[in-house]
Structure formats: structure tokens, C-alpha cells
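The following block was generated as part of the benchmark described in Methods. Ligand: adenosine-5'-triphosphate.
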Amino acid sequence: MAETILKLDDVVVLRRTDPTGPFGLWGARPVRAVDGVSLSIARGETLGLMGGSGAGKTTLAEAATLRRPVDRGSVSVQGRDVRRLDRRQARRRLQMVRQDPRESLVMEQTVRAQLGHLIRIHNLPDGEARIRRALEQVGLPPAEFLERTPREMSGGQQQRLAIARALVLNPLLVALDEPVAGVDPQLQQELLRLLARVQQERGTAYLLISQDVRVISRLAHRIGVMHLGRLCEIGPAEQVLLEPRHPFSRRFLSREEGPLPPDEDTAGRVFSGCPWADHCPAAVEKCTKERPVAREIAPGHLAACHVL
Ligand SMILES: Nc1ncnc2c1ncn2[C@@H]1O[C@H](COP(=O)(O)OP(=O)(O)OP(=O)(O)O)[C@@H](O)[C@H]1O
Ligand SMILES: [Mg+2]
């Protein structure tokens, strides 16, 4: 078994909306954007994360990479609780590439300056060599790109640079939030190949968020499905894709007929039972009352459902 790189135990992340916003005080109530999620990711493994808009995927990735505080539960890296680790060092090892590369890039600063700055704040040796290696790995020839600014680059090149920015710090894990959404199919294939190659060469673990089954099935070894903050199912990729077991995953992955409810917002809602119970054809009374705990339904395949 490969070493466990990241482990989340019963993680809850609350998000508060602005009390002066359209929902007033109601909107100010904390939302359980992530509601008791446990999972682990091994060295060199890709865990795919799927689920509708507002399910909590980005929030989970932010909490997992220490970009957002956890309100309950724990995050551990290589078996050590992050609360006992130096936060800056732990964050260096857990990187995140956001859906919009511009969020993590300094648009007016040269590639050399911004990657060099990162390396300096983390006191890493061999700055220049690291920068060149990361650029080469993402297919941006250093001679051509070191002195360019992101503003002088195409969208695809910016996306590559955002990946290089994560890799330059030699992370154990990278959370990739929709890394190829909105890019043309050919570039998509190139980026996916690149990510697979980096993983092979460096043993980097990925938490890959995507709504696109083709993207997920290309890279993910295991897949988790989220619904309204909960992880309803997690298991080997082909099992979850071909034979999802949780009633929500079955609907979401179109194994079962029926409409998906519109993208939901958990604002103000607290579920004592299963959040899918109201829509679930298999629901029994217990489903609205008691929280289903994740149980192993096949080796390495877990689902949080009372009726399975
Ligand atoms: N800026 C915010 N302020 C307050 N609450 C928020 C904010 N953004 C999201 N939330 C809450 O957190 C929940 C989870 O949001 P999150 O962005 O993590 O979902 P997601 O699965 O990444 O969705 P998407 O697929 O649209 O990116 C939302 O349903 C919403 O209730
Ligand atoms: Mg998101």
C-alpha cells in the first residue's frame, strides 16, 4: 500500500454569507459547506471529486490544502495532524490550482519574478533550476517564457503556468479545481497528459475536481461523489462510474431516470438525515431523521445510505 499523504476525518467547514446581502440575517446563518467528510489520498493517487454546483467541492479542496480553516474534524499530512505542523511548510506541500488561473498568478509580473518570489519565501535551494524544471514539465520552454508576464500569454499558457506555480514547490498533493474546464478539447488532452506524466515522475497525489466524466475517468483512480456538503459515495473509479450505488450518485451519473433538482444552496438548511431523502425513490422514514454513516458496500467502496 502506498503511503497515505492526506487524511480528512469528519471535516466540517462552515461558510457565512454576508448579513447585509439579499438574504439578510437568514443569509448570515452559517452554511455547512462541507458536512462531516472523511477521506484519504495516497502517494501517486488521483481522487476524483464530483457533485453538483454548490456541493462543497471547492470548499473541501480549500480546507484540504489549508487554504480555509476547518470548523470541526482534522486534516493530517503523512499521518500528522496539521495543527501540530508548521503551517507554512504544510501548505507548501499541499498546493491548489484554481479553476481560473488568473486567481493565483500576478498578471503584471514576469514568470521568473513570481516563481522566484515563491521559492524565496519558502527558503528553497536551487531556485533557478527548480523554476526551469517546473516550466519544462508543463511545456513552457524557459528560454521563451521566463521573462514573460501572464498578461502576454494565452489562456492555455496561463493554465500551464498555474500548474507550474504549484509544482515549483515540490508538493505532495495538488488540488486541481476544474483544471481543464473551458479550454478547447485538444489543449484539454494535452493538459491531462501532462498531469498524468507529472504524477508518474514525481508521485504527486491529486485531488481532481471535475464535472466532466471524461476528465475524471482519464485520471482518477478513485472517485468521490458529493451532495450538499456530504460525501455520499467513494470507491474505485470504474465501480463508481459504471455501477454507482448511492441513490444520489445513481441519479447524478445518470444511471437512473429522473430529474436532478436544480443546483441547491444549503443556506439555512440543516439536514438531520440524508440530504437526498426528499428526492430519493428508495427513501424510508429513517432517511429523513437519522444521518447515514458511510459503510463499506464492496472492498474499498463506501456509501452513506440507510437502504443499501
Ligand atoms: N462566497 C461564499 N460565501 C458564503 N457561502 C458560500 C460562498 N461560496 C459558497 N458558499 C456556500 O458553500 C457551499 C459550497 O460551495 P462550493 O463553492 O464549495 O461548491 P462547489 O461544489 O465547488 O460548487 P461549483 O461546482 O459551483 O464550483 C455553497 O452551496 C454555498 O452555500
Ligand atoms: Mg467549485
